[in-house]
Amino acid sequence: MHLAGFVDPFDGAYFGEKWSIPGFQTLAAAIDTCKPDALVIASPTETHVSYVLEACRFGLPTLCEKPVAFSREPILEAISAVASSNIPVILGFHRRFDAYRQEVHARVRAGDVGKVEHILQFSRDPRLAARSAVLHQGNIVADMVVHDLDELNWFMGSLPERAYAQLDRNADPTLAEIGDFDTANIILSWEGGAVAHVSATRRAAHAFEQRLEVFGGEGRIICEDPRISPVIFDSAKDTRISRRFEHFWDRYRPAYQAEIDHLADILARGEAPLCTLEDGLRAYDLVQIVLSSVQAVTESK
Predict the structure, then answer these.
(1) What is the CATH topology of the domain spanning 95-250+282-299?
(2) pLDDT tens digits along 162-213
(3) Superfamily of 6-94+257-276 according to CATH
(4) b/e map of 195-220 (b: 16 or more CB within 10 Å)?
(5) Averaged pLDDT of the chain
(6) Paired strand residues for 1
(7) Is the pLDDT of residue 143 over 70?
(8) Terminus-to-terminus CA distance in the chain, angstroms?
(9) How far apart are CA 53 and CA 122, in angstroms?
(10) Helix ranges, 99-225 (H)
(11) N or C: fewer beta carbons within 10 Å in the chain?
């Protein structure tokens, strides 16, 4: 598989020249010229559905970055179009393609920990994103915590019955100007007694961190962060361990490659997508449940 062309309505020609591939301002022009076998959508969220609809019109298997959209109606429109065209569309929730998280999911679903009682998730970005980026990403729950929420949908197989959320501005009080937050603490509970606690922040001095624990009646599964180096030095004086990765691109690089490999497998062998637009709809619904449950908002003074 190789990159046949690049579409950007503003800088398509520039990036095409920079990367030595054909650049276009419209998807239709790229498809007409390059005759691609598949489409990868990595554009701003507000363009995702329009590109998915074009992919359906041209019959192109597609990998689309999450989320599908910021509101429910466009997601339903995209799901309907995909069903009518019968093309495979992968939604890029990258944790579903991470080998470590896949092992946790497989063990949970196989019942290795018994009945799930408690899930702990920690999501911490190393630094605040630029304000220009935050304006296009949606709020902390819709953009960042949605990965944790999708993962909970994946593990549990159903939406929770109850939710409690507290959102804070601990690092940047000026986020109030755009109605966003930098910290989220969320508790979700399911029928049968399982409870999940999500702790998320957009600013962590120590590094990018995403840890997970699933606890049940028969045991627990812990998924720690991989380190830049697996080497640990021990001596009588101290212990030294490598730092965590600084950015999600580095932590999840193999997962992003796995997404592309999965698209290739779909083209070659007709495999079913591991993550679909329907999964995106369930993640959107859980985001709305969380946002509607916000009980406290605090400001750093």
Answers:
(1) Dihydrodipicolinate Reductase; domain 2 (3.30.360)
(2) 999 999 999 999 999 999 999 999 999 999 999 999 999 999 988 899 999 9
(3) NAD(P)-binding Rossmann-like Domain (3.40.50.720)
(4) bbebbbbbebeebbbbebbbbbeeee
(5) 93
(6) none
(7) yes
(8) 52
(9) 35
(10) 99-110, 131-137, 140, 146-156
(11) C
Note the pLDDT of residue 133: 81
Q: Is the C-alpha dihedral spanning 200, 148, 256, 30 positive or negative?
A: negative
DSSP-derived 3-state class of residue 54:
helix
The two tokens of residue 109 are 């679903």
Q: Are 18 and 30 in contact (CB under 8 A)?
A: no
pLDDT at 132: 79
Q: Give yes or no for residue 300 having a pLDDT over 60.
A: no
User: For residue 230, is pLDDT > 90?
Assistant: no
Amino acid at 39: L
Query: Structural domain boundaries of the chain?
Result: 6-94+257-276, 95-250+282-299
For tokens 């063990």, what's the residue?
107
Query: Hey, what are 187's tokens?
Result: 């508790």
Of the candidates 113, 100, 48, 107, the residue with the CA atom closest to the CA atom of residue 77: 48
